[in-house]
TrEMBL record:
Domain RNA polymerase sigma factor 54 core-binding residue range list: 98-279
PANTHER family in UniProt: RNA POLYMERASE SIGMA-54 FACTOR
Gene Ontology terms, MF aspect: DNA binding; DNA-binding transcription activator activity; nucleotidyltransferase activity; sigma factor activity
Keyword hit for Transcription: yes
PROSITE patterns: SIGMA54_2 (PS00718), SIGMA54_3 (PS50044)
Region (Disordered): 67-90
Database matches in InterPro entries: Lambda_DNA-bd_dom_sf, RNA_pol_sigma_54, RNA_pol_sigma_54_core-bd, RNA_pol_sigma_54_DNA-bd, RpoN_core-bd_sf
Protein name per its UniProtKB record: RNA polymerase factor sigma-54
Any one of the GO CC terms: DNA-directed RNA polymerase complex
UniProt keywords, alphabetically: DNA-binding, DNA-directed RNA polymerase, Nucleotidyltransferase, Sigma factor, Transcription, Transcription regulation, Transferase
Coiled coil spans: none
Family under the similarity heading: Belongs to the sigma-54 factor family.
Transmembrane segments: none
Length: 452
């Protein structure tokens, strides 16, 4: 008969207290988000104060005497201002125009400007404006046209649709890239016979099977080659040349500078204000005459403020250690360029620093490093080898090989096929299957040998 008896045992456990949780969350924050978090904590905790903010302009700087270049706007925008010296006033105006701030024109603005110049009825113009406002970044319709133009005169809709599709860039206001290509083909001057038929077999065109395509559309191989050359002039996504959605501005957390043959790592402290403890709260916490409630309130807030400052310092210290280890492992990259990026894993850095892999992951997440080769996300430096075995496999990393493929494509005298790229890599001692080359090529946003 089994009898259950109570027993005592000792074991160690890591309990997640609020301070440790806060430290972990601060470790993950990029520099822009960290600044916002600091501002929130300063507003929440009266014992925490900003001693110095390098991004804040002082009153002395704000009211400093203006330099000559600061007066371009005032001088050139005043029609009564005359500068001695003949035509120098025109020079000043040119300087202002050249230095004026500008923003890229959107697809909608470009099309609406052209539409307003067209001699059409107001009804057609209003429908055209609605069609243009319905376009996405690729130039395609967001909402289906029947629902968008319900109740409108079909003749006016057709006229407005034809007009907008003919504006620059041609082929907008369509459902997808196939319809866009068909519209552009109809507007193409002196289009070769069979071009519209060839658009029904884009897959054959992409694979370069011109002979097979010729049989499908009953054209000779020379005629198909002429058709293919004209199709290359078309744009499957006409709106992308105006797209600004992919533009992102990042603030690097660290910078790597080469000085006298050595790499120096600089933490971006311009974005992080210097924090300290409010002296008034320090006085209350150590006083004997204050009430116990006020004294306890001051001490608790001072304790939280000190922990917050310590957590930020720990974040910066860990970020510097991880960055220093990355530079040591990736010295060839920083010395010679992106194609020399070596295989590296989180485990390699964790073992070097004596920390857990999750600590390295949190430190690298969402943060950027500025190098002489550009600004890279810190996670970019962690990449497997082409054999997929991490840093213990091939000495060539996936990202490094992709940079070599980029160089081969950009410097090619003719359009190399994926198999030819694979053969060229093999000559460099990088064995890579054709399908893997095709995968990397697509990740680099390069088309096939036919479309390039």
């Amino acid at each position: 008969m089994q009898v259950q008896r109570p027993s005592l045992s000792q074991e160690q456990r890591l309990k997640m207290n609020p301070q440790l949780y806060q430290s972990i969350k601060l470790m993950e924050l990029p520099i822009v988000d960290l600044r916002e978090r600091i501002e929130e904590e300063v507003e929440r905790n009266p014992a925490l104060e900003v001693l110095e903010d390098r991004l804040t302009v002082s009153l002395d700087e704000a009211y400093a005497p203006q330099k000559d270049e600061d007066t371009y706007f005032e001088e050139s925008s005043d029609p009564g201002f005359i500068r001695k010296g003949g035509d120098s006033d025109a020079d000043e105006q040119n300087k202002f125009i050249e230095g004026a701030l500008s923003r890229p024109e959107t697809l909608q603005e470009h099309l609406l400007w052209q539409l307003r110049l067209q001699p059409v009825d107001d009804a057609i113009r209003r429908i055209g404006e609605r069609l243009i406002q319905n376009l996405n970044a690729d130039g395609f319709n967001e909402e289906p046209l029947p629902a968008l133009l319900k109740g409108k005169d079909p003749a006016a809709v057709e006229a407005a649709l034809s007009l907008v599709r003919s504006l620059d860039p041609q082929g907008t206001c369509t459902a997808d890239y196939r319809e866009s290509l068909r519209v552009q083909a109809k507007l193409l001057p002196e289009a070769p016979p069979g071009l519209e038929d060839a658009l029904e077999y884009l897959e054959l065109l992409e694979r370069g099977k011109l002979a097979e395509l010729g049989k499908k559309i009953n054209r000779t191989e020379d005629e198909v080659r002429l058709i293919a050359d004209r199709i290359k002039e078309l744009s499957p996504f006409p709106g992308r040349q105006f797209s600004t959605e992919d533009t992102r501005y990042v603030v690097p957390d660290v910078q790597v500078i080469r000085k006298e043959g050595e790499f120096v790592i600089v933490l971006n402290e311009e974005e992080i204000p210097v924090l300290g403890i409010n002296p008034f709260f320090m006085k209350i916490s150590g006083g004997k005459e204050e009430e116990k409630t006020a004294r306890d309130f001051a001490r608790e807030n001072i304790k939280e403020a000190r922990w917050f400052i310590q957590s930020i310092n720990q974040r910066n210290h860990t970020l510097l250690r991880v960055s220093r280890a990355i530079v040591e492992f990736q010295r060839s990259f920083f010395a010679n360029g992106p194609k020399y990026l070596a295989p590296l894993t989180l485990k390699d850095i964790a073992q070097e620093l004596g920390v857990h892999e999750t600590t390295v992951s949190r430190t690298a997440n969402g943060k950027y490093m500025q190098t002489e080769w550009g600004i890279f996300e810190i996670k970019h430096f962690f990449t497997n080898s082409i054999s997929g075995a991490g840093s213990g496999g091939s000495r060539y990393s996936k990202e490094g090989v992709k940079e070599i493929i980029r160089e081969l494509i950009q410097s090619e005298a003719r359009n190399f096929s994926d198999q030819e790229l694979s053969d060229l890599l093999a000559q460099k001692g990088i064995p890579l299957a054709r399908r893997t080359v095709a995968k990397y090529r697509k990740e680099l946003d390069f088309g096939s040998s036919y479309t390039r």
